[in-house]
Amino acid sequence: MFKRILLANRGEIALRVQRTCRELGIETVAVYSEPDRHQLHVRDADLAVPIGPGPSSESYLVIDKIIDAARRTGAEAIHPGYGFLSENPRFADACETAGIAFIGPPAAAMRALGDKVSARKLMEQAGVPVVPGANDIDPSDLARARAEAERIGFPLLVKAAAGGGGRGIRVVERLDDLEAAMRASGAEAASSFGDATIFLERYIQRSRHVEVQIMADAHGEVRAYGERECSVQRRHQKLTEEAPSVAVDAALRRRMCDAAIAAARSCGYRNAGTVEFLLDDRGEFYFLEVNARLQVEHPVTELVYGVDLVRQQLLVAAGEPLPPHTRPLEPYGWAIEARINGEDPYQNFMPSVGLVTQVEAPLGPGTRFDTMLCDGLDVPVFYDSLLGKLIVWAETRELALRRMRRALLDLVIAGVETNIPFHLALLDHPDYVSGAVDTGWLEREFAMPDAGAGDPRAETALIAAALAASMTSAAANGATPAASTNEWVRTNRLRALEQRAGAGGGRGWRRGTGS
């Protein structure tokens, strides 16, 4: 096993990897940009190396700086986390050249899977179901595109061959709209990924996004840890995930896991990865893509399968076989994750950054909060909006939903706006509660309620505001505060008011935000 590894990432995923390393007695090296110098992952590391200014293009995405930091600190391996360089085969190659283990898949597998056209061809050869489509379309070849579109049928998707994250995707309802969609998708793909190549794919309407967690070692074993439901999305970005999926029974799970294992074997895959599928309302599934890294939502799989996926990543990267799984490879209980983002759901999810003045993590059984937050942290403007992940586990989905509501109500984040009210409102929606969702459901069916609507604690806020105004007025008039208005008593008054208002509701209440 490694003695020292470098974390080529930041925030909550860097902290997540650090915790497993400490359990294994592995020292960690943090790298950090200038605005991240006071982040928790920097404080908690055994060694820390500055790598440049705030923009990721000048720090976390500069391969030479990461490799140099690893060499100078004697790191034997690099864990890339997710995002940044995690799926960059040039980074994996640079690690190999430097004699440093890359804690992820081989560069060749990343290249084969990173290009969606190449990945589709691999899956077809491996017998993995793929959505009918047409590969390698030049955006300027309108004649071929028209012919392929008529063969595939409408509606269809125009998609970028390279990259991901929802970029370069356009829905086309009729032939007359194809040319404009191709030009827009190609231009966005060229700008984002440096490759304008596109492909066409049948649009599977009202489909679910269901993915399978895989782990493969260098000794020939490929293991599938069941599925995750990831259909609640906005602009192709996941907001909440759960394991297992309400739409998957034991027989379908086996078929999907077998397909995911075949996908991994098709390209000599090693380490952690996720095979993503579209699942239609007839129970048929189609290959979407492979994420060649650890996923943001990996904790829900860890909780229902009783594994530490980061630990397994480290073992596999060190050349060891996957450890025996001590119980059947079946999900036990139910886990749900809510992504806590710095954004205002009442202002069209506008990003929110700034100084975090207070954080109180929820406690209690089956509750986990993976976060970068601490009191006094200044959230920088340079990176994505993810502040943390609230994960709950329970014996049943119904209890997990109740536990998530309780945990969200207990979570306090002051100083910046967060999407906690969105998650509480989501838990009130009957479609979400029943599991009747698809990838377009959120934007089609869901709307944020008015702030405070239906929440008895809104009354608490009004009373507290009136009390504070009264105290301020008395002080301004020169009145001497009575002994009963000291800080302890004021705090107890507010707690009593909260108890009077009750713990129910939650729709629209902005506790946990900066408001």
Question: Please, could you describe this protein's structure?
Answer:
It is a single chain. The chain is of the alpha+beta class and 515 residues long. It folds into 3 domains: 4-103, 3-Layer(aba) Sandwich (Rossmann fold), CATH 3.40.50; 132-202, Dna Ligase, domain 1 (2-Layer Sandwich); 208-445, D-amino Acid Aminotransferase, Chain A, domain 1. Helices cover 36% and strands 23% of the residues. The strands form 6 sheets. It has an 8-stranded antiparallel sheet with strand order 14-13-10-11-12-15-22-20, sandwiched between helices. It has a 5-stranded parallel sheet with strand order 3-2-1-4-5, sandwiched between helices. A 4-stranded antiparallel sheet has the order 6-9-7-8, with helices on both faces. Strand 4, helix 4 and strand 5 form a beta-alpha-beta unit. The longest helix is centred in the C-terminal third of the chain and has 20 residues, at 457-476.
Summary tags:
single chain; 515 residues; alpha+beta; Rossmann fold; Dna Ligase, domain 1; D-amino Acid Aminotransferase, Chain A, domain 1; eight-stranded antiparallel sheet; five-stranded parallel sheet; 17 helices; 36% helix; globular
